[in-house]
Write a structure and sequence with these properties.
Layout lengths: L2 H20 L8 E3 L5 E3 L9 E4 L1 E2 L9 E5 L2 E6 L4 E6 L6 E10 L2 E10 L6 E5 L7 E9 L6 E4 L4 E2 L2
Parallel strand pairs: 2-12, 3-9
Antiparallel strand pairs: 1-3, 4-10, 5-6, 6-7, 7-10, 8-9, 8-11, 11-12, 11-13
Amino acid sequence: MSRTRAILLTLSMTIAAVLGAAVPGIATAEVERASTVSSVTTGVAAAPDAETNYAVAGNLPPRSELVCRSVPAVEICYEASGDHWWVQDQSSDGASAVVYWENFRGGSLYRSGFCVNSLSSGQWGQCNKNYYENSTLNGFPCTWDRSSNENIVCNSSGWRFQ
Protein backbone atom coordinates (compact mmCIF):
# COMPACT_ATOMS: atom_id res chain seq x y z
CA MET A 1 0.00 0.00 0.00
CA SER A 2 1.40 3.36 -0.94
CA ARG A 3 2.12 5.96 1.73
CA THR A 4 -0.49 8.36 0.25
CA ARG A 5 -3.14 5.66 0.26
CA ALA A 6 -2.35 4.75 3.88
CA ILE A 7 -2.64 8.40 4.93
CA LEU A 8 -5.97 8.78 3.11
CA LEU A 9 -7.32 5.61 4.74
CA THR A 10 -6.22 6.79 8.20
CA LEU A 11 -7.71 10.25 7.61
CA SER A 12 -11.06 8.84 6.43
CA MET A 13 -11.27 6.49 9.42
CA THR A 14 -10.53 9.41 11.77
CA ILE A 15 -13.25 11.55 10.19
CA ALA A 16 -15.74 8.66 10.47
CA ALA A 17 -14.88 8.23 14.16
CA VAL A 18 -15.33 11.95 14.87
CA LEU A 19 -18.68 12.05 13.05
CA GLY A 20 -19.84 8.94 14.88
CA ALA A 21 -19.09 10.58 18.23
CA ALA A 22 -20.85 13.83 17.26
CA VAL A 23 -24.19 12.23 16.32
CA PRO A 24 -26.40 10.99 19.17
CA GLY A 25 -27.47 7.37 19.35
CA ILE A 26 -30.76 6.15 17.99
CA ALA A 27 -33.56 5.21 20.38
CA THR A 28 -33.09 1.99 22.29
CA ALA A 29 -36.61 0.86 21.44
CA GLU A 30 -37.02 -1.14 18.25
CA VAL A 31 -36.77 1.21 15.28
CA GLU A 32 -38.52 0.43 12.01
CA ARG A 33 -38.83 2.47 8.86
CA ALA A 34 -42.36 3.80 8.25
CA SER A 35 -42.84 1.64 5.18
CA THR A 36 -46.54 0.99 5.81
CA VAL A 37 -47.41 4.63 6.33
CA SER A 38 -48.26 6.29 3.04
CA SER A 39 -49.02 9.73 4.45
CA VAL A 40 -49.76 11.77 7.47
CA THR A 41 -52.91 13.85 7.15
CA THR A 42 -54.45 16.91 8.79
CA GLY A 43 -51.61 19.38 8.50
CA VAL A 44 -48.57 17.35 9.57
CA ALA A 45 -46.13 16.46 6.80
CA ALA A 46 -43.71 13.76 7.92
CA ALA A 47 -40.21 13.55 6.53
CA PRO A 48 -39.80 10.61 4.14
CA ASP A 49 -37.25 8.98 6.44
CA ALA A 50 -39.33 9.34 9.61
CA GLU A 51 -38.49 6.84 12.34
CA THR A 52 -41.24 4.57 13.63
CA ASN A 53 -41.12 3.07 17.11
CA TYR A 54 -43.73 0.83 18.68
CA ALA A 55 -44.27 1.78 22.32
CA VAL A 56 -43.58 -0.69 25.08
CA ALA A 57 -45.78 -0.88 28.17
CA GLY A 58 -44.59 1.00 31.19
CA ASN A 59 -45.58 2.78 34.37
CA LEU A 60 -46.05 6.49 33.85
CA PRO A 61 -43.61 8.55 35.95
CA PRO A 62 -44.98 11.23 38.30
CA ARG A 63 -46.79 13.98 36.37
CA SER A 64 -44.36 16.52 37.81
CA GLU A 65 -41.64 14.99 35.58
CA LEU A 66 -43.74 15.24 32.40
CA VAL A 67 -45.14 17.77 29.98
CA CYS A 68 -48.49 16.41 28.73
CA ARG A 69 -51.08 17.40 26.15
CA SER A 70 -54.26 15.62 25.14
CA VAL A 71 -56.96 15.63 22.52
CA PRO A 72 -59.97 13.32 22.33
CA ALA A 73 -58.70 9.72 22.15
CA VAL A 74 -54.98 10.46 22.73
CA GLU A 75 -52.78 11.83 25.50
CA ILE A 76 -49.08 12.42 24.81
CA CYS A 77 -46.41 13.22 27.40
CA TYR A 78 -42.73 14.01 27.11
CA GLU A 79 -40.23 13.12 29.82
CA ALA A 80 -37.23 15.37 29.21
CA SER A 81 -34.95 13.68 31.76
CA GLY A 82 -34.80 10.51 29.67
CA ASP A 83 -36.05 11.68 26.27
CA HIS A 84 -39.08 9.39 26.58
CA TRP A 85 -42.39 9.84 24.80
CA TRP A 86 -45.41 8.48 26.65
CA VAL A 87 -48.61 7.79 24.69
CA GLN A 88 -52.01 6.67 25.99
CA ASP A 89 -54.87 5.44 23.85
CA GLN A 90 -57.98 6.88 25.50
CA SER A 91 -60.51 5.36 23.12
CA SER A 92 -61.76 1.84 22.46
CA ASP A 93 -62.22 2.50 18.72
CA GLY A 94 -59.48 0.03 17.68
CA ALA A 95 -57.13 2.73 16.36
CA SER A 96 -53.63 3.09 17.80
CA ALA A 97 -52.62 6.24 19.65
CA VAL A 98 -49.54 7.91 18.18
CA VAL A 99 -47.28 10.88 18.78
CA TYR A 100 -45.62 12.34 15.70
CA TRP A 101 -42.50 14.24 16.77
CA GLU A 102 -40.18 16.66 15.00
CA ASN A 103 -36.67 17.48 16.21
CA PHE A 104 -35.12 20.75 14.95
CA ARG A 105 -31.49 21.83 15.22
CA GLY A 106 -30.46 25.32 14.16
CA GLY A 107 -33.95 25.97 12.79
CA SER A 108 -33.88 22.98 10.40
CA LEU A 109 -35.69 19.68 10.70
CA TYR A 110 -33.07 17.20 11.88
CA ARG A 111 -35.16 14.10 12.67
CA SER A 112 -38.81 13.14 12.85
CA GLY A 113 -40.75 10.07 13.77
CA PHE A 114 -43.68 8.29 15.31
CA CYS A 115 -44.20 6.58 18.65
CA VAL A 116 -47.11 4.17 18.11
CA ASN A 117 -49.04 2.75 21.07
CA SER A 118 -50.74 -0.45 19.90
CA LEU A 119 -51.38 -1.62 23.45
CA SER A 120 -54.94 -1.88 24.68
CA SER A 121 -57.07 1.17 25.42
CA GLY A 122 -56.12 2.94 28.64
CA GLN A 123 -52.55 1.59 28.70
CA TRP A 124 -49.53 3.83 28.62
CA GLY A 125 -46.71 3.01 26.25
CA GLN A 126 -43.33 4.68 25.95
CA CYS A 127 -40.65 5.15 23.31
CA ASN A 128 -37.10 5.92 24.40
CA LYS A 129 -35.39 8.49 22.16
CA ASN A 130 -32.15 10.48 22.27
CA TYR A 131 -32.25 14.17 21.31
CA TYR A 132 -29.65 16.92 21.44
CA GLU A 133 -30.09 19.02 24.59
CA ASN A 134 -30.38 22.40 22.86
CA SER A 135 -32.70 21.29 20.08
CA THR A 136 -36.37 22.08 19.56
CA LEU A 137 -38.87 19.26 19.89
CA ASN A 138 -42.49 19.39 18.73
CA GLY A 139 -45.14 16.73 19.30
CA PHE A 140 -48.49 16.10 17.60
CA PRO A 141 -51.16 13.69 18.96
CA CYS A 142 -52.35 11.27 16.27
CA THR A 143 -54.40 8.14 15.67
CA TRP A 144 -53.71 5.29 13.26
CA ASP A 145 -56.40 2.82 12.25
CA ARG A 146 -54.24 0.31 10.39
CA SER A 147 -57.17 -2.02 9.70
CA SER A 148 -59.07 0.53 7.60
CA ASN A 149 -56.33 2.57 5.92
CA GLU A 150 -52.66 3.40 5.97
CA ASN A 151 -52.94 7.06 7.01
CA ILE A 152 -51.88 8.41 10.36
CA VAL A 153 -54.26 11.25 11.25
CA CYS A 154 -52.69 13.95 13.40
CA ASN A 155 -54.02 17.01 15.13
CA SER A 156 -52.66 19.90 13.08
CA SER A 157 -51.87 21.80 16.28
CA GLY A 158 -48.78 20.42 17.92
CA TRP A 159 -46.95 21.61 20.99
CA ARG A 160 -43.35 22.46 21.72
CA PHE A 161 -41.93 20.12 24.35
CA GLN A 162 -38.27 21.14 24.41
